[in-house]
Amino acid sequence: MKTAALLLAAGMLQAASASPDMLAFGLDKLAWGMSPQATQGQYPALDGAAMTPGEPVSTLHIADYDVAGCRFTVMLTFERGRLSQVDLDSNSAAHLAACNARLKRLLQDQYGGLGGGFSAGSHGFSDYGSWGGKRMDITYGELDGAFIKVTFKGVGKSAGQ
Q1: Is the separation of the CB atoms in 147 and 87 below 8 Å?
Q2: How wide is the angle at C-alpha 17 spanned by C-alphas 14 and 18, nearest 5°?
């Protein structure tokens, strides 16, 4: 019983300390405008080809990333050598209903104060959510039995624009 209370308190503390200006799902070491090399320093599992000089866009990815027991491919997009977008795409349709409920709760806990929220049957998704902040825009889409997609997009100067 004491252990359960400690775990509950730790979970509440973690949720309370999550900032709406930070990326969710354990990606909080990333910052808009980071270079590919800096992101790989924070997340050594990132993989991808080195950016070719003169190339306007490049990507790095993690093929099997765990978020609340759900498996995703994480794709980082760099515009002009600076982090500008992070996409998470579910790796399979297995357990989507349970994943949908967990991810929605995590997103609402962290970004609910920004305004926006969830709606059913919007933008071609079974579940859709969006929030906008000073430093990033967040969208969430789930298509029943098919996939979940989450996008974090940096906005303004913090995204290297």
Answers
A1: no
A2: 90
How far is CA 125 from its chain centroid? 18
To which residue do tokens 């969006």 refer?
130
Alpha-carbon distances, residue 158 vs 32, 43, 57, 140 (angstroms): 5, 20, 17, 21
pTM to 2 decimal places: 0.82
C-beta neighbour count of 130 within 10 angstroms: 20
| Domain ranges, ordered by start, for the chain | 2-159
- How far are the Cα atoms of 70, 102, 125 from residue 120, in angstroms, in the given order? 21, 16, 7
For the chain, the average pLDDT equals: 83
Burial string for 146-158 (b: 16+ CB within 10 Å, else e) reads ebbbbbbbbeeeb
Cα(134)–Cα(143) distance, rounded to whole angstroms?
28
